[in-house]
Queue: 3 jobs
Job 1
Amino acid sequence: MIFRKVVTLVLFSLLLMNMQCDEDDVAILPCGSEIIIDSATYNEVESHAIESAAINDNCLDINIYDSGCDSDSWVMTLVDSGAIAESMPPQRYLKLSLFNDEACLAVFNKEGSFNLLPLRVEGANEVLLHIEGLTEPILYTFN
């Protein structure tokens, strides 16, 4: 009787160890929001002022300030014109749009992160990003 319980416990333990995930099974999720690539949308949206922007791996982290009650309901959208200037490095043009329908006078900041992978240009390993509202373009380098 005891032997049967020990065997059952050992088999159950082996079954549990077999269900552990390997490091190869873990998916690496891209950062942040997707960038909209559409010339009509680019022409329609108003650009919002950007406090700072930095590239972290394949992510573009943007920090903004605006008035409101809190920044939780704000929706930041990064829109690419779809046009690629054929130069070395290639150049892309973007606008940051902010949806904020709050009517409070307090000022809050918010950081948004955007996945830069769709902005890569075939045959190049870097792209110069001209983001409306920033005085200097940002160089996105990739392998």
Note: Helices lie at 2-18, 39-44.
Job 2
Amino acid sequence: MARNPLPRPTAAELDLLRLLWRLGPSTVKQVHEARLRERPDATYATVLRLLQVMHGKGLLRRDESQRSHVYAAAQARGPLQTRLLDELIHKAFAGSGKDLVMAALRGGRVSDAEREEIQRFLEETRDE
């Protein structure tokens, strides 16, 4: 039997997933309040609707045992990020992880502190 592919979150859905990964299981009110700190124009209705859509897609779990439903990410951050990264490497970089890293390093998206951390990681893993 074929397994259903895991849903791919939109940019807006990823924003809410990042909030939920940071907050942990949360009510719509809690997610909305956290979202307002990042986007003051975010409405409660929009956050509610997006959480409902995400639940329908299988991106979120919803605990309905209390009056205020509690939403939580259905997948941990690491595995989802790895899957999205694999898709990006395959689609945009012809399967080359090196090309992805080089593009990030050349594109000015990596700070000096991040470069130092990457260098330490490479040195630590060189002998493994």
Note: The beta strands are 26-27, 60-63, 70-73.
Job 3
Amino acid sequence: MATVLDDLFGFLLYAVGEPAVTRHLEVGYRAPVLLGIPYLLEAGVQRREGRKLFVRGQGTDEDGALVVEANAVFVVVGREHFARGGGDVATVAP
């Protein structure tokens, strides 16, 4: 589920035109997340501080019960970062 949420955040940032890489991802499981069960995943950008983007997401089951939530910090990078395979990202102070 952590990978799915990280991908969801990546697609969110691509959709809003902010190519970025994951700096920190925190996932909280509120209930078992089972294979073969559909979940609704939602995500949004909470705020921006310089190159840092703070995002939040959650997953709910068919009854609307929260099963997983996540907070993440992404660092905005130039599009050339992805063209060269993602190496040598500049360090960003916490």
Note: The chain has a mean pLDDT of 89.
